[in-house]
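A favour, since you know our structure tokens better than I do. Could you add the entry underneath, on a fresh line?
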Amino acid sequence: QVQVVESGGGLVQPGGSLRLSCAASGSIFGIYVMGWYRQAPGKQRELVANITSGGITNYADSVKGRFTISRDNAKNTVYLQMNSLKPEDTAVYYCKFMKYWGQGTQVTVSS
């Protein structure tokens, strides 16, 4: 069994920053791609960014240049640094590790 736990969401003004963290624990053998997804009300869940064990990253066009994904393989932890946040970034952000999802953390960008 694997547990995935996100933290770091909250309310921020447009132009502000937040840092999300996600830690995976349990029966983990090997190092896998880790990723962040988000789902806004009335919309489908979408990929925000992911990162391989070797550090190769992939970003949605909407966040390129503003968000940075990183990871600590020793801790099975992935981070998402979000800068220059916009109201359209408002969503529940989910972490995915292997086939396992976290419970999600709310990010709200509003003045």
In short: The chain is about 0% helix and 55% strand. The chain has a mean pLDDT of 94.
